[in-house]
Amino acid sequence: MNRRDLLHVLGAAAATGALAGLPAQRLLAAGRRLHRRARRGGLQVLDPHQRETVATIAELIIPATDTPGARAARVHEFIDTLLADWSPDDERARFLAGLADVDARARAAFGADFLGATEAQRVTLVTQLDAEAQAARPATPDSRQPPFFQQMKFLTVFGYCTSEVGAKAELHYETIPGAYDGCRPFGGWRANPGDF
Fold first, then answer.
1. Using CA atoms in the order 155, 159, 160, 161, what is the torsion angle rounded to 10 degrees?
2. Is the Cβ–Cβ distance between 75 and 114 less than 8 Å?
3. pLDDT tens over the chain, length 196 residues
């Protein structure tokens, strides 16, 4: 997927009310601004346990492989900043309730909160949350609030792809793609085999 396709998908699938309807280029710019703000400050909305839960879930969604994962892209800090700066109170409360539900489900299934569960148990729970989110997917994006995990997944991908780590390592973003030849005569240009 190229950068333009990614931006189109992100713009069309904005799963958070504050970002819904933004054109793709503005969505990308908003993501970059949020990353800059996230680097400046500490936790604003999430407590340390919630922050680590978000970081762990995000890393399960985009794990480190031959490229850095969501934790290296500091997606958890990005999400905290987005919740503080952009999310309405009701949306922020729904997100925090979703995090609490993840811990409650882990305790019910495994006898420990999400962070206390084993890696295999975490994967099982995240897989179950993803299946539920896919089954509950609304017919239209605006018909109702997305399930917590769908929102978490969107915010993880959005945070990762707008981070410096994600843009450079995964998307191979080049600030100025192609070559610049400032000595080319201004007159008519003809395609020569050596021009490409």
1. 100
2. no
3. 343 444 334 444 444 444 555 555 556 555 566 655 656 666 678 999 999 999 999 999 999 988 889 999 889 988 998 888 878 888 899 999 999 999 999 999 999 999 999 999 999 999 999 999 888 766 545 546 788 999 999 889 888 888 877 666 665 555 555 555 555 555 554 444 544 4
Amino acid at 30: A
- φ/ψ region of 61 (left if φ > 0, alpha if ψ in -120 to 50, else beta) reads alpha
CA–CA gap between residue 100 and residue 113 (Å, rounded) = 9
Nearest to 47 by CA among 9, 6, 14, 76: 76
* CB count in 10 Å sphere of residue 69: 22
Show me where the domains of the chain are located.
3-176
Locate 160 and state its tokens: 């990762």
Place of tokens 């396709």: 5
Contact criterion met (CB below 8 Å) for 95 and 83: yes
Which residues neighbour 41 within 8 Å (Cβ) at sequence distance 6 or greater?
A: 81
Tell me the whole-structure pTM to 2 decimals: 0.69
